[in-house]
Fold:
Amino acid sequence: MRTLTHRGRAAAVLAVTALLAAACTGGEDESAAAVCAPGETDGDLLLYNWNDYVDPDLVPAFEAAYGVEVVEDYYTSNEELLARVSAGGAGYDVVVPSDYAVAIMVEEGTLLELQHDAIPNLANLRADFTDPSYDPGNAHSVPYLWGTTGLGVNTALLGDVEPSWALVFDPEVAGALPGRVSLLDDPREVLGAALHYLGLDPNTTSEEDLQRAADLVAAARDWTAAYDSGTYEDLLLSGEVVVAHGYSGNFLEAFDGAEGYAYVVPQEGATVWTDAMAVLADAPHPCTAHAFIDFVLTAERGAALTEYIYYPSPNAAAEALIDPEILDDPAVYPAPATQERLQFLRDTGEFETRYTDLYVEATS
Amino acid sequence: MVGVAPAPAPARRRGPRPPAPPGPEREAARAAARRGALIGLPPLVTMVLLFAVPLGIVAVYSVATRGRTGRTELADWNLDAYARLLEPLVLEIAGRSLGYAALTTLLCLAIGYPFAYWLTTRRPGVRAVLLVLVMLPFWSNFLVRTYAWRVLLGSDGPIVTALAAVGLGEVRLLFTPFAVVLGLVYGYLPFMVLPLYSSLERLDLRLVEAARDLGATGWEAFRRVTWPLSRPGVVAGSVLVFIPSFGAYVTPELLGGSRTTLVGSFVVRQFLSARDWPFGSALSMAILVVMLAATVAYFRAQERRS
Structure:
């Protein structure tokens, strides 16, 4: 009996190590191999994208134009994407991580260095998107869409409010609203908003600054109904909350022209983000992946994307084709003065766990 | 075991095997053993592949290191993640989860016991229909049913509207601890009712009658006859409700608001926002060990009492 247990244990350990070894060996050093001509394809495309993040015509149009099939799979957060691909062997070609996740993936070596001559439509990018801080020179990624994180407001009940984080953090303002508010269920976004409100760096690695932000979030519990990243637009529309923290395009898509709601970017500053297309280092079809990125960068596809999901396009050529009403809407394309106060969230390395801990402490 | 000559005690399972009977009987015994091994193989393989191996991976990750980018480095093995388990934040969340799980179990028992008892007194045909009704919710997705509670409890929902109509003023139900406990009781009540029912169904009602004939009051007959005889159902139901509600994730996430973070959400957060897999794994291992120990202790205590 005892010897059998020993043997059993040894077998289990072996099995575990074998699995771990298999998980660790995939995905390293397979870059450099691909040399693709513009528009060249080398098989079907495996696209791993955010849920509900393409216009419905894009994929069929690509399939028809290039004679390949596209298999789509979805994720709901960058962390889910990182968890899936960082061990390698995920089998996807194109992924769409956000700015800070691009930086993490480049550091981890999971992204292929892009072959810019296979993506002639890179020339369509707006000048301010050609050298992003998270990926200098777009070496590993190409902007797909961008947007801001701000507040959706029930203006029918609140009237014209001053666009400020006071709407969720100030006891005098938020505490006196005729209803409650919701915040994103996201440590970086919520603490980032509090840091913006306090006039501090949203990417701070100072324990003291972060603690001040956490105290603000903890005090806001009294009027915060929920921490919700998935259904906040419904909470706002159903009247459950009167102010909701969330992403620009989601609100605008949900409002769909309905009167009595507005999306605002708080004047103290807010998060701006870019979701970028990238090719995995171990992508099975790197040439189709480059062709797809090039296809998305055409003026027509860029315009269709923005018109469908109300996130602004990084594509300058597309702007001529986008409905002027969308192009001039400051909720979609923030005014230049607002843009100056927008900041990317950056990965803070080891400090990231402090954000999570203080957030959980402040909200629970 | 080497060198020790065990006294051949007949009842011991580990004792030497008795010599197999000769001839065709031995053949039959061997065939039976082979069949037994064959039948036992699929569940063994399933358990090892689907349970032991993943658990082993969790154990390995729990002693690994979080890399700078959040990738787990399978090197520098250490117990740092386990040291963090004693931080006040972790203890507070664990204590709260314990409280919610205990309350849920008690409420399920208080509602489930009379219901299961009443079930056993129905005619068999009615009983079958009622049992199907108990299991009916399982036929639709749990997530969808939890979202339905959001509508029911919402500030425009029927419950709040009805309460306001009878003059109770504006009550907030959604995103409160009340909503979380309600959701948990709703979700896990069938797990209490079914084992209780199977225990009570086998109860010999003549024993209760005898107790009454011998002068016991209704309460005494329940306390000294019915309750002790139904205790296996109470034990099984309580464990089946307590364990999943301790680790519940969907219900507190969807129905809870501030101040309702339970361990399930805390573990998920380690994987999906802190990207600290070692700490998330250590938390999972700790929950597993504590739950296992508590369950074993509970079963032991119940055995001793009966």
